[in-house]
Design brief:
alpha/beta, four-stranded mixed sheet, two-stranded antiparallel sheet, 17 helices, globular
């Protein structure tokens, strides 16, 4: 049995220049017409799209082993060399993911011991916001820096000052690459590598990658010189210890290249998605002040003045928890997921999918599935509340994807989102700048691999 095939004829240059955002729109329309499983042809490249909550869950969870690989992607092959945590394959991926999950847990991921680090960062972030004295400012770089410092403390064993020029440069390079990876030139590079090469975008991406790797190499070199097996301060130290333990083996995946790319994966993923979600949160609070006030009322009820939010407070604050979940669903940060591929020929729902075929488990179709959400196109915290105002889970909530390739830092991100978001709304009320009405605020995302809010200014008034 063949898959449904959709041929998108390219009539002119502009017709081909899809962004991640417009591609999502196209896929959504096609899934309504062609069903939960269909094929897109981008020139010589064939991509299978799996859409809707039930189909995506079946692929990633029920048949998870059948879709556990990553496909060949010219741009990501170039930037990752198929090493690290996100884009590696087979036994190498299993080793890196297993080690990373274990190490992140050792350094407090999902545990109360990490809470103090995040709370310290909340204090620093608040102080940065206070410096604007209620005047308009762009929170982008500051929020990214605060969130990044949490993963930096785990990777490197220390944080950075927000105005550190090296740190600012690193954050900007991560930002630039996330944006460029979702541009039409990046998609063209993946579909037609020869033509894409002529456009030169990959050179800009690789320049940033090499600069980031250079910083990581220098940091690793310094930590290797100071290494003490009895004083493991972060992920890099833990990896160096693992290298020592594996040194007698004839073959090991714990080589320096995997260290570089694993650190780069953690640094990037641990900065980009959570900070983007918080920035969406600030924008949405300006857009919906009644929701902002309701959260603040709940905060005042359950937190004493001067008391920083703690993870255990989430159980007592169902409305805040519901808003954060809805924020993740509505913002839809990684709309196309990260592509999967079958390691062997497989059948899915009766359709034959050859080994190595790029498969997109279309997260937008899950987070906007009309059979799972009452008002999928609206920002509606009631999606996660019952009639008594208690928090309720929804299995179609998959912002971190699902199955064996789900986000390795999910529990860290969940902790950060609650503490940072609650900590900011405890201290500030966010308003649009003078002369800008809430109706003027656009919720149309910017171009990028992740869906980020378009550039905006906010005013943070102390509560």
């Amino acid at each position: 049995m063949k898959l449904y095939v959709v041929d998108r004829k390219v009539q002119n240059w502009e017709d081909f220049l899809l962004t991640h955002s417009s591609l999502c729109t196209c896929m959504g329309l096609m899934s309504e017409k062609y069903g939960d499983v269909f094929t897109l042809h981008f020139g010589p490249k064939r991509v299978v799209v799996i859409a809707g909550y039930k189909a995506v869950k079946e692929a990633l969870v029920t048949q998870g082993d059948d879709f556990v690989d990553r496909p060949r992607s010219p741009l990501f092959d170039l930037t990752s060399k198929n090493h690290g945590i996100i884009f590696s394959h087979g036994e190498e991926w299993k080793s890196m993911r297993r080690f990373t999950l274990s190490t992140l847990r050792d350094f407090g991921m999902g545990k109360k011991s990490l809470e103090g680090r995040i709370q310290d960062e909340i204090i620093a972030l608040r102080e940065s916001f206070k410096c604007y004295n209620g005047k308009p400012f762009n929170p982008h770089l500051i929020v990214n820096s605060a969130v990044s410092n949490v993963i930096c403390s785990i990777i490197f064993g220390n944080r950075f000052e927000y105005d550190d020029p090296t740190f600012q440069k690193l954050i900007r390079m991560l930002d630039e690459n996330a944006k460029m990876a979702g541009e039409p030139k990046a998609l063209l590079f993946n579909f037609y590598p020869f033509i894409g090469t002529l456009l030169g975008l990959h050179k800009k991406v690789m320049r940033n990658i090499e600069n980031l790797k250079d910083f990581i190499q220098k940091t690793v070199k310094k930590q290797r010189l100071e290494f003490n097996a009895n004083d493991i301060t972060g992920y890099i130290d833990a990896y160096l210890l693992k290298q020592e333990q594996e040194s007698t083996k004839p073959e090991t995946y714990f080589h320096d290249e995997n260290l570089q790319y694993s650190v780069l994966d953690l640094f990037d993923a641990g900065t980009e998605t959570t900070s983007t979600t918080i920035r969406w949160g600030i924008l949405l609070m300006m857009k919906y002040p009644e929701i902002q006030k309701k959260i603040q009322d709940e905060i005042k009820t359950h937190l004493k003045p001067g008391q920083l939010p703690a993870v255990e407070d989430r159980k007592k604050m169902p409305y805040t928890d519901a808003v954060i979940h809805e924020l993740q669903r509505f913002a839809n940060i990684v709309p196309l997921n990260v592509s999967h591929a079958p390691p062997t020929d497989v059948y899915f729902r009766g359709y034959f999918i050859p080994k190595g075929t790029e498969v997109i488990p279309f997260l937008t179709s899950v987070l906007n599935d009309k059979t799972q959400w009452k008002t999928p196109n609206d920002f509606n915290p009631n999606h996660f509340l019952d009639k008594d105002g208690k928090f309720v889970r929804n299995d179609a909530f998959m912002p971190f994807s699902a199955g064996r390739r789900a986000c390795a830092g999910e529990s860290l991100a969940r902790m950060e989102l609650f503490l940072f978001f609650t900590g900011l709304l405890q201290a500030f009320t966010f308003y649009p700048p003078p002369g800008v009405s809430r109706e003027d605020l656009t919720l149309k995302p910017d171009v990028g691999f992740t869906l980020t809010p378009a550039k905006y200014m906010t005013c943070a008034k102390l509560n």
